[in-house]
């Protein structure tokens, strides 16, 4: 017996609706799992680097490309990924990006040469750049009510913000308990699950017709890749390196051309209207500054624990657990605090916590240890970052028009990724200069081992002093540049 399309027994699913109906809890789990996997990949490989270096015979300087190949590709393609999601459909591009990321992870785990691993890391970065910008945009779509959206943002920020720390813990466990290849293979079952579940439970927002801003995408990608590469090269060499200087020149030219192109483009990858709102512009700037200090902390503390204190990979990973717990707790409760106090007090309080933690770490001494000089700062930084990131994300996305949500999300994550890459490069450069200067004045009577420990501690402390300066700048941006307009009263952009 046939049933007429107009029959009451037939339910018509709206275009873009999830196949299994409205299940916001499952939808959020799928979206958060994607972001967690992308963020984890920024640090999970760090602790496995010594094993990868031995297994695939990377040089001492060449192993840095295992990290850089991912961050350069991810940061360079994020704006384009956000625009592709706006035009082709955010859920569709989200799923495609995770599929690319998953396949690249599998190939990375199977890699038998360094070149194959680096190619897989580039593939992971490209997949993350496609999927990443859609995560926040999909939260806005699947949680249209402000209270529920803020609660979802709190959960998202808690998981995404602590994902970097979880990556260190998980990387240490997988490396110590098995092989470095598992830091790649761990992504495969998660990625497959996301690809299968997203069409069933995640609603697809309406697509926005338009054309791709190819010139803007190319110039922004070239400019950001050149900028990050320049700082990475300086960290390896010095400020007089001709390749680094040439890279900076390319970055300046490409980014200047990008600004000109965006001003003239009818449908730019970075609409200037996103930056017209003072609060949103300030939040974007701090999304660049704070991750710069956070990734520097992960890099330096991992070195201090393993090289200075003799921790194993798993011990070094677990040392970050208190930070992860505090970050999850504060981010998880930030939605209720945001509704009560507004975004500015939360972010200022969080920035003060990060400042105290970084300043404390800048006082590292040769005779110190984890309990006396590291644990307290990790707790303060974890709590501070947990208070900062969720209100900044809400400020950036809550008043954006639907047509710009993908671009706004892509720019947010671009700021985070580029900030993290530049932060590590700049702080490592400061570290290297401090070590070279201190080596000219060796400690009298110190053994070679004690002298090496002294240089390590001095260099890291100097790096954290620079990180403290960056946090001060972030605090001043919030204090004087952020008005603190409640999200509920923000108006939609034209």
Automatic annotation (TrEMBL):
| GO molecular-function terms, A-Z | transmembrane transporter activity
Nucleotide-binding among keywords: no
* Domain of life assignment: Bacteria
The signal peptide, as residue positions, is none
Q: How does it sit in the membrane?
A: Multi-pass membrane protein
**PROSITE patterns xref list:** MFS
State a GO cellular component annotated for this protein: plasma membrane
SUPFAM superfamilies for this protein? MFS general substrate transporter
* InterPro entries to which the protein is assigned, alphabetical: EmrB-like, MFS, MFS_dom, MFS_trans_sf
Q: Which UniProt keywords apply?
A: Cell membrane, Membrane, Transmembrane, Transmembrane helix, Transport
Residue stretches making up the Major facilitator superfamily (MFS) profile domain = 27-486
A Pfam family of this chain:
MFS_1
- Membrane-crossing residue ranges in chain numbering: 26-49, 64-81, 93-113, 125-143, 155-174, 180-202, 214-231, 243-261, 282-302, 308-329, 341-362, 374-397, 418-435, 455-482
Q: Where in the cell is it found?
A: Cell membrane
Q: Cross-referenced NCBIfam families, in alphabetical order?
A: efflux_EmrB
Please name the PANTHER family in this protein's record. BLR6921 PROTEIN (PTHR42718:SF46), MAJOR FACILITATOR SUPERFAMILY MULTIDRUG TRANSPORTER MFSC (PTHR42718)
This protein is called what? DHA2 family efflux MFS transporter permease subunit
């Amino acid at each position: 017996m046939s049933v007429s399309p107009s029959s009451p027994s037939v339910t018509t699913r709206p275009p873009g609706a999830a196949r299994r109906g409205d299940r916001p809890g499952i939808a959020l789990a799928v979206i958060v799992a994607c972001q967690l996997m992308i963020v984890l990949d920024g640090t999970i490989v760090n602790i496995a680097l010594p094993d990868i270096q031995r297994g695939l015979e990377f040089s001492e300087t060449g192993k840095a490309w295992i990290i850089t190949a991912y961050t350069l590709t991810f940061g360079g393609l994020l704006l384009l990924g956000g625009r592709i999601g706006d035009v082709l459909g955010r859920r569709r591009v989200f799923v495609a990006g995770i599929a690319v990321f998953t396949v690249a992870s599998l190939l990375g785990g199977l890699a038998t040469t360094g070149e194959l691993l680096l190619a897989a890391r580039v593939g992971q970065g490209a997949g993350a750049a496609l999927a990443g910008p859609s995560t926040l945009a999909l939260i806005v779509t699947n949680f249209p009510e402000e209270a529920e959206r803020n609660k979802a943002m709190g959960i998202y920020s808690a998981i995404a913000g602590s994902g970097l720390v979880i990556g260190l813990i998980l990387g240490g466990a997988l490396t110590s308990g098995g092989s470095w290849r598992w830091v790649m293979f761990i992504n495969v079952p998660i990625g497959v699950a996301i690809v299968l579940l997203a069409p069933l439970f995640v609603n697809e927002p309406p697509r926005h017709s338009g054309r791709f801003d190819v010139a803007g995408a190319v110039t922004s990608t070239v400019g950001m890749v050149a900028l990050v590469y320049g700082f990475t090269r300086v960290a390896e060499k010095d400020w007089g390196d001709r390749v680094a200087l040439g890279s900076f020149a390319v970055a300046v030219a490409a980014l200047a051309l990008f600004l000109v192109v965006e001003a003239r483009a009818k449908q730019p990858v970075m609409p200037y209207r996103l930056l017209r709102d003072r609060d949103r512009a300030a939040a974007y700037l701090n999304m660049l500054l704070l991750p710069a200090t956070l990734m520097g902390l992960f890099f330096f503390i991992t070195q201090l624990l393993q090289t200075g204190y003799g921790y194993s990979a798993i011990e070094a990973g677990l040392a970050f657990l208190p930070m992860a717990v505090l970050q999850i707790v504060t981010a998880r409760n930030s939605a209720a605090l945001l509704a009560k106090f507004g975004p500015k007090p939360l972010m200022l309080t969080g920035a003060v916590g990060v400042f105290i933690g970084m300043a404390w770490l800048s006082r590292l001494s040769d005779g110190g240890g984890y309990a006396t000089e590291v644990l307290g700062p990790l707790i303060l930084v974890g709590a501070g970052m947990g208070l900062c990131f969720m209100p900044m994300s809400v400020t950036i996305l809550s008043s954006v028009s639907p047509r710009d949500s993908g671009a706004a999300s892509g720019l947010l994550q671009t700021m985070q990724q580029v900030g993290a890459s530049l932060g590590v490069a700049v702080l490592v450069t400061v570290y290297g200069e401090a070590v070279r200067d201190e080596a000219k004045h060796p400690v009298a009577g110190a053994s070679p081992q004690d002298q090496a420990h002294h240089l390590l501690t001095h260099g890291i402390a100097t790096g954290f002093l620079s990180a403290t300066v960056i946090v001060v700048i972030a605090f001043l941006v919030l204090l004087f540049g952020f008005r603190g307009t409640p999200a509920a009263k923000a108006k939609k952009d034209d």
